[in-house]
Design goal:
- The protein is an alpha+beta fold.
- It has one domain (9-103).
- Helices cover 42% and strands 23% of the residues.
- The chain contains two helices and five strands.
- The protein has helices at 51-84, 93-103, and strands spanning 9-13, 19-24, 29-34, 36-39, 44-47.
- Strands 1-2-3 form a three-stranded antiparallel sheet, covered by helices on one side.
- The longest helix has 34 residues, at 51-84.
- It is elongated.
- It starts with 8 loop residues before the first strand and ends with a helix.
- The mean pLDDT is 78.
Length: 107
């Protein structure tokens, strides 16, 4: 299993208004989307999200490394709080742990 490209990531426009991409700090394209894709089996173009939805998706994807890091910090904070308050267990922490495991390919 390989790890994801290290952040930060940045949303970039493409060479045309029909392409949107997300680049790593080192310049690698970590995500790219055109306004259509070609289905070889069906022999035709498949419509993809419009430009505005692509831009919104790219912003969310670009934020992923920072969101993952923030969630890991929240888990550490919740674990520390649980150790200081006897009998307390933040119920959402298990969900957070599952999300991190899923993002890291451990689930």
């Amino acid at each position: 299993m390989s790890k994801h490209t290290p952040g930060p990531w940045k949303k970039c426009g493409g060479a045309t208004p029909h392409f949107c991409s997300v680049h790593s700090k080192s310049g690698y394209i970590v995500f790219g989307m055109a306004d259509h894709q070609y289905d070889k089996e069906q022999g035709k173009k498949i419509k993809a999200p419009d430009m505005w939805e692509q831009q919104a998706n790219a912003r969310l994807i670009a934020a992923a490394p920072e969101l993952l890091e923030a969630l890991k910090e929240a888990i550490e904070f919740a674990n520390a709080a649980n150790h200081h308050i006897a009998g307390q267990n933040l119920p959402v922490s298990e969900k957070w742990i599952g999300i991190v495991a899923n993002a890291e390919g451990r689930s």
